[in-house]
Amino acid sequence: MRTPVVLVWLDCVAGDLFVDMYRRGRLENLAEFFEKGSFIKSAVSCFPTVSESAEGGIISGFFSGETNMVGERYFSRRQRRIKHYKFNARAEKDFNPRLRRKTLDAIVENSVAMGRIIHACEEVVDLVATRYEREGSFKIVERRIEVASRIAIEKKPNMLFFTISADYISHVHGRRGDAVKKFIKRFDESFPLLTEALDQAYGRNNYMLFVFSDHGSANVSKHLDLPAFLSEEGFNPAMPDLLTERREANAVALSNGRRVGLLYFTHPEYGWRRRPSYKILRNYPGKGDLLKLLAQEEGVEQVFARKDRRSVVVVSEEGEGVIEYDFQSDRYRYRVVSGSDPLKYNIEPRWMSEEEWLKATYDKEYPDAVVQIYNMFKSENCGDLVLNAASGWDFWEPWDIPYPELKASHGGLSKDEMVTFILAKGPRVRKSEIEYARLLDIFATIASCYSMEEVAAGSHAAERILSGKLD
Ligand SMILES: [Zn+2]
Questions:
Q1: For residue 163, how far is its CA from the centre of ligand 1 (angstroms)?
Q2: How far is the CA of 113 from the centre of ligand 1 (A)?
Q3: Which of 8, 50, 274, 404 has a CA-to-CA distance to 471 between 20 and 30 Å?
Q4: Total-model pTM
Q5: Would you identify the CATH topology of the domain 5-218+415-457?
């Protein structure tokens, strides 16, 4: 039998907060369990920093534009309507069909999940947990662990994959709020119940356990209403509160996680039937340069647009840069073309591999942007323009009011949102502290354990935590 895999997905826990608590010895049970395991201090999430992109990445080793998971919402040009995974779209239907047979679900088989978005295995729906999640109740922690433990003992799945969401808590109380600390602490307190059940189900030290967060969050206090902005600029935007066919609209602005914006525009001649070219976006009839127009807004940090198959442009209020990809060498280059660097990288322009870019930028203000932004535009669901919100800002829309107060959002490219952590332990996992990785590297580690290294080799995921020898 292959090593069973357990993935504990803490939704929206800020990486720096968790790492602080862990290193200061405040999470005793986790520290004891993972003492002989691997601790990845900076695990770079998948952009945009919403659960959809992260889940797509972890189950396949590919970025959002390749898995087709560019957010919780997108605009379908073909159907001329906004598609939302909570309401009128299904993530597993949109997930890139070419990757379907190469996902964790396909490799591991016999999986059970709770709280996943891309449904590709047996799903346990826990309505009590759903209620706790919606109310932001801390009881979610014990409930999830209790039910997961029961599933492990009763069903012994090869893969058990479940979420414990701190999303509501983080949004309402702020990314490092006391409530989030309490959530993490409660998770640590309940953790032994889970490992006891796993020991009973699979045998001690006989399973691989991962604990990680899918993305962090950024504190916000100011909101830019993008559809209202487009209206003021003379567009007729589709209001995102009505998910129906929108023939009359000539623009759409959708936020995802509230800090990334996807903007779509009609082609001046062909309407929604054709995507406006880069040239048109930079000189839109009657409006001028849409990239500059949006980059000038106070709430917008960067605007991204695909120039051609091998380049993506980055525009901020003060400058412009270009990301280039070389198909032959599989390397990327980033250079500033005017003004100051919109990504604030200060890196000499040269061709670098994905691994080199990760190493060079995981601790920068916008981690892994070069590689991930380039790849995001591969999806037909991606906006013509992608916006990253400025520090302290998000793109909250008036219809969207499930929270008494919104103190933190995510979706954006900032370090606060992009960097999380991974704890891992298993029969082949070596004792190590690792400086950086991508969240989607979890895919490569699991694929390795299941002797599917060649599948991982074709993805972006890199194996970093297993010891060399097979025993
Ligand atoms: Zn959220």
A1: 13
A2: 20
A3: 8
A4: 0.96
A5: Alkaline Phosphatase, subunit A (3.40.720)
Cα(168) to centroid of ligand 1, in Å? 7
User: What number is the average pLDDT over the span 145-168?
Assistant: 97
**pLDDT grade, residue 471 (50/70/90)?**
very low
**Cα of 193 to ligand 1 centre, how many Å?**
27
Q: How far is CA 82 from the centre of its chain?
A: 20
Residue 29: count other Cβ atoms within 10 Å of its Cβ: 16
Cα(252) to centroid(ligand 1), Å? 21
Whether the link from the prior residue into 404 is cis, omega within 30° of 0, is no
- For 67, the 3-state DSSP assignment is helix
Rounded CA separation 332/321 (Å): 13
Three-class DSSP category at 421: strand
Q: Kindly give the distance from the C-alpha atom of residue 257 to the centroid of ligand 1, in angstroms, as a whole number.
A: 6
Q: What is the distance in A from the centroid of ligand 1 to the CA of 233?
A: 29
For CATH 3.40.720.10, list the domain ranges present in the chain.
5-218+415-457
Could you tell me the distance, in angstroms and rounded to a whole number, from the CA of residue 346 to the centre of ligand 1? Answer: 31
Distance CA 43, CA 52 (A): 17
User: pLDDT by residue (tens digit) across 320-378?
Assistant: 999 999 999 999 999 999 999 999 998 999 999 999 999 999 999 999 999 999 999 99
DSSP 438: E
* Cα–Cα distance, 230 to 228 (Å, whole number): 5
